[in-house]
Queue: 4 jobs
Job 1
Amino acid sequence: MFGAQDMCMPVRKTILSGWLLRLVLTEELFIANFHATRVSDIITMQAEKQGRHPVGESKLKMYALSSVYEIRSAGIFPNHFTFSSVLPACAGSSVLLHGQQMYCLISKHGYEGYVFVGSALVDMYAKCHDMHMAEKETVHGVVVKQGLLTMSYVKNSLMDMYFKCGLFDEGALLFNSIGIEGRDVIPWNVMLIGCVYNENFEEACNYLWVMKRTVLSPDEALYSTALHASTHLAALDQGTLIHNQIIKSGFSTNTFIASSLITMYAKCGSLDDSCRVFEETENRNLVCWTALIAACRQHGNGNHAMELFEKMLANGFKPNYITFVCVLSCGHTGRIEEGHAYFNSMEKMHGIIPGHEHYACMVDLLGRSGQLDEARRFIAQMPIKPNVSVWGALLGACANYGNLGMGIEVSGRLFELEPNNPGNYVLLSNMYAQKGKLKEADLVRRSMAFNRVRKEPGCIWIVVKNKTFVFTVHDKSHAKTDESYEMLKKVE
């Protein structure tokens, strides 16, 4: 415990201010009894207002930001410890104005050149998704000017910033500038995550195999990212090869990787392999259970998904927000009573407030059973404003059962909420056409052209020698198009 005289020293004041802000940003708020200073009185008072309960993460971040101004008004001037602690709160709030204000204070006090402050600035701009402002404030320039680019963690943060701002080439350029010998596992992780974030899934898998040819060994996070990439490609062969490397590396018992494997096999069409991975995982956690429930639901085995949910509850696991989305989305089972029971248990038994996804699942469940009027009443009673997922579920049900009147009303709401979604126009046009109202159907199609809404053509892809080839309708862009069509003629 610090004494009152010690607390009056300027150095101790600034260190304390940074320490207190770090404390505020932890998962739960533990307030030390620093009654000798006005700053501690402020924080202690706020903690008592919270009733000594854990404070919500968003509230903590906003509280950390407000504490900076309280610290300054108390006569304690922030230093590099303070700023490196509060910048993550600016990033977490995703409000760029907060970060701009902190940047002004940092410049005013001359702390731009400090390593941890520079790294935190880069991270803040990346998470606020504003590359223009990052360039305006010349974060990269400041890093270079102050000689911080040689610091590996600063360069990693810069890479992450570029990737999250959609500037993949710039991030890849930084990665390549490191050199193979200078890379540890972290920049490889950042690179793979950047590939996945920018939907360069094939490149992500390729980077894994490039890394394997070095002296480094991938960790569980890198393997999980690579599995995520192969999942998006629906490349079962690629995923199986990664699984083989995971077994050789000794990560097969890792629950984090196990859940990724369950999802990968399910998305690649092999539910049996998903179940096998689940059964072979000894210390299953909630994520593993949720992944398998989602896998069964995706393969149309909703009844088994509900059985797994009940088994999960019997094993003492408490479902979370995502788990309920997975189990409630088994609308094709037609088990309305069970669906209502699960939905009602969310808040009453598990303390989870239903979100738009859960309401959309319930509308889909009612709609698939033909209870369109009941689904419409359910939407009218929602305590939150229905969004596109809720109205979209009802529109799909209207199309399935040919309820044109309700379909016109629902599509009108969707045109207001998402005017650029071609699926809504197509569904309404098809409903008109099925009722023999071809003029109205043509009018809807024309309105798509008038509003410059274009339906993307469907596509298929094949993998040949670990390379993915994508084809669309009437696609003749491939170098071997003529040979392909000649082969089709022979098959016919």
Note: The first helix runs from residue 4 to 7.
Job 2
Amino acid sequence: MPSFWRATRFRVAVTAFAASAVVLGAVSVWFVLQARGRLETAAAQLAGAHADAIVQLLNTGARPGDLPLLVRDSIYEVKDQRGASLASCPVLREATLAAYDTDVTLRPYQYDRSALASVGCAPELRGLDDDLTLHVVHADSGDSKYEVFAGAQLDPEGQVAVDSARTVLAAGVPAVALLIGVIAWLAVRRSLRPVEAIRGEVAEIGAHDLGRRVPDPRTGDEIARRAGTMNTMLARLDEAVTRAEPVHLASPRAGGIATRTPEKHSGTPSPASPSRCP
């Protein structure tokens, strides 16, 4: 098992999986953020147009109490300089739209869609039984007497599309990254198969098997060049051994002279050796 974790194909597969997961994840996050940003930009533009329309009415002398009769299809809140709410659509309950170019979420119990003052924004609330999330834009009247906060919902269909894309990407990115890792595993294993064949053949070649050669994958790549270099080395070794063998075999027969290790003399002459005269 330890050798498995150190295997080249495993390390390459893990690297491919991690790299692809990071890249695909970053691209997916960027895509979702861009799509979300486009929805928020469209909502901000719509809310800004509603705020400008309400400011124009206030600048022409309309009172905040007249806005429910004059404004249609808009979600807004008008406050005075002290921050007191003067008019809103829908009628708010312990909630406010006071925000500056950001999102505000209203719970169903925080607004009253059945109130008479909520008639103007009834089309915006139709079919809505969940939280109301708005992108709110702030504007001031010409005399700075009133503060206007207008909100617009994100495009529901666009929001559904973004949510669906987020769900698909959250599940798809790991799956694609895993697939890339598996493909990398198989590709590396296939690429290293000739190397393993070369290693196995070299391991089986002994001192008397120098005539054997490693398999040549004939792929024209680095592995094929390594196999060629190995075969060239084996051929040189085989040639060197072949040239050396006759010399060792002919030496005893050619001279017929056996070498003998000199004996050590203990001081007593050997019986076979003649004595020297003084």
Note: Strands lie at 75-80, 85-89, 91-92, 102-106, 111-112, 132-140, 146-153.
Job 3
Amino acid sequence: MSSVDENHLQKTEQAKEQTRAGDGNTHSVVEARNKIRLARINTVCERENPHLIRRENPMLRAIIDPNRKITYCRVNKVASTYTLKTLTDTFNCSKTCFRETRKDIQQLPYSEFRDVIAGTYKFMFVREPYGRLFSTYSNKFYFTKEHWAPVGPNIITRYRKNPSFESKTYGHNVTFHEMIRFVVEEFEAGRKNIDEHLRPMYMHCDPCDYSYDFIGNLETMESDWAYLRDIWHTRRKIAKLSDTVGKNLRDDITGWVHVKRTIERFKKSTISQYKLYLRAWTYYQITGLVCKTIALPFTEDSNISIYKFQEALLKAVEQSKPFADECKRQKKEALHQAYASVPLELLERLKNALEIDCYLFGYETRPDWVFIRENTTSDFNYFKGLA
């Protein structure tokens, strides 16, 4: 697709969506919005070079209920954990239950697999692609989590001349710049098996090969879920869902259990325990749960325990609640700070890696907040835990 065609389509569809959606979240508004999203996908699939976005015999990351009524195509870092939990509660089917259902269906011949999928209500959720990569970095690479390997060590070994033993072994201190370089080079090399959190959204769900009934956006998730709740009930796919579905999507501190596991795992290593706690604390500042004015109440010399950390974190979250709007702006500050660390030449190459997702799902291929760096920096260092 030429840049002229893409820009015209993007502006036209965004204008249509804004005009129809207005400020409301009614059933008819969401339905009209969904038609625009689906029409856009059809247009892009027809115009794009097919080999770029179609795969031979694509098998979805499909999560299908045991009664084969609904198919959810899971895209990591688009509230997929929340959506999966909603489905497990709705169908009284555990993750293991869904896994077994998926296994049974994916063992079918490809033509039969497609027939099963075709008979279900198919939906997926997407989000702004540059923001999704930042979310992946902050949660999967920066946050104090025990699952840095194998991607972390792979990235560090590839790009650092003399990495430390700990960095090569654990991959615990990958920078945002390094992660973006890895994504770009994997794309340019034509590798399709990149980590699912870094993989383009269209590769998870193949929207040019499967005809979806609904495309939700993280940015409109509350109204999208309200629509799904009502339409599934009307079509007798499910019993009535709770009115709270799609709400309360704000980040919480349940991830602190990862901090506990990580501290235990690296207790005998030379990795600074203080820095691990600092990374967890600043992560919650990135997500906006803790105001950046509230510092980690420990020093390098402190005798920190996971329980002292949890107590301090809960206190900081409560102290931050009166300043919720101010704290929410921290996520955007951190995002700008991360992208400001990436050379513009590499960002241009990243644009090429993300443009199919942008074309298909209606996002800007070259957003100003990524490529124009005026007034986007903050004096606060959100990633000081790496230092």
Note: Strands lie at 62-64, 70-73, 121-126, 214-217.
Job 4
Amino acid sequence: MAASIHPDYQTLGLTFPANLTLSTPTVATWPSEVLDFAPLTASSSDDNRPCILFIPGNPGTCLFYIDFLSRLQEKYPDHRVAAVSYAGHGIIPRVVERSAGRDMHFSDCLAGQAEHKALFVSSLLQSSSPPTSLVLLGHSIGCHLISRFLPSLPSSVNVTDTFFLTPFIQFSPSVLSQSMPLNLVASAPLLALRAILQSANALLSASSGYTGRGLRFLLGAAGGIKNANTLEVAAHMAVTPGYFRNFITLGHEEINEVPREAPTRAILEVAGRTNLHFLFAGGPDQWGPVTQMRSLLRLVRMGYIGKEVGGRMVYEPAIVHDFVRDDEQIGVVVDFVEAGMRRTLNAGPLYPGVRSKL
């Protein structure tokens, strides 16, 4: 078995698993990065399997999570594992260009991004070999997108489990420190981009004599990115101007549109369709702080959210919000997903995280 990688991605320095297909089908007018890991076990109809579908956080490209998804595939060799990037987000110019015929509604606002994901799920389910069931995983703002599109899926779609991994589903005081600079940059993203890149190039060239090598060193040392594929993707994102513009535009939308109060109704709607699991990070995590878990547990005790949801909330201080930057943290999150899916099947113990004592 050999990986099937779109030609535009073959020279970017990434390492791809042998069972991966990387393509850019058009979804809602945008060519969209799609990762599709084929099942590792043989079958007469390999595509008619349960599918684990991942919705990334913002940076918006599923390539940021290649090794995380590959580890999930190893845990679940009988499953298909897939992921879709955001409209307008990626590491090659063709998928981020705001060219004629592309609808900015899908790239620039959360409602449009949620519709984009719903359309992708619909295409998956209407394919010649649709999955028998879905497990949804979201990271950060990807959890918010799932909460928007999952209730709209037909009732015939069997979503057995949904995992909110370090979720950004509620605006909290800790996000205020991020909102002012983001609002400022969003007011003139191209000017900000030019200033940032010029400053970075001058700094890195002076310190290393080679901007590409220096950029990777900076991202690894200052950004704490230890995973090789994640580091390479981050480096490509940093020098793709169109990506930066779309990232800032959507990020500005996030901090202005994510609910200020606990999204009780959205949680209830999702929990009514699936087994909902929450994983909160240490860090501290400014986007999904553990205080939000405490607030949700209070709502459980008050009867607004079911006890079965509260029983699947875990605080894991061993990880940070962007856990994908570190191989050990990736393993912790994969173990959490495995424990949650085993619990649904009544086939294993609870994940040994900190729960209701918070």
Note: The two ends are 47 Å apart (CA to CA).
